[in-house]
Design brief:
Distance between the termini: 35 Å
Largest sheet: 7 strands, mixed
Shape: globular
Number of helices: 7
Strand content: 15-25%
Structural class: alpha/beta
Helix content: 25-40%
Mean pLDDT: 95
Number of strands: 9
Radius of gyration: 15 Å
Length: 166
Amino acid sequence: MEILNVRVDDRLVHGVVATNWIPRLNVARVIVIDKESANNPMLKSVLRMATPKNVNLSVITAEKTLDNFRAQRYGNEKIMIVVKTLEPILELIEGGFHIDKLILGNLGNQQKTDSTSVLTRYVSVDESTIPQLKKIADSGVQIVAQLIPEDSEEPVMELMKKKGLI
């Protein structure tokens, strides 16, 4: 198995992922790690409809993902991981899974409040996500904001430092 992309996107699989990231990276399987979607047949069905027909889709929990990785269930597939929030990323790291780079595609924009800090047009952080990002970065993961493959990567920890958030 080859992990090509680990992405946080609060919309999970949608147009940008399906038409930009998946074909650009030649992804064979998308693993959506989201407890709510994994336990809801309707949400799974919607995600299947959004995923290109030639791409396998797994909609599972972080625990099941770790089990599948340990069992080498995905063989030589090229994989993209998509999560809605940072919690599954922390679960993967705590479970011993190594992540080189985490791409924030769309984070926090749908739940903006007065205490939200905007880092980029598509990435906003708050008092719950800032410590999570710091913990992920402290584990050696490079965190960047990047909506589409053509966009430049923006280093998230530097953006948070410039805003005085860390």
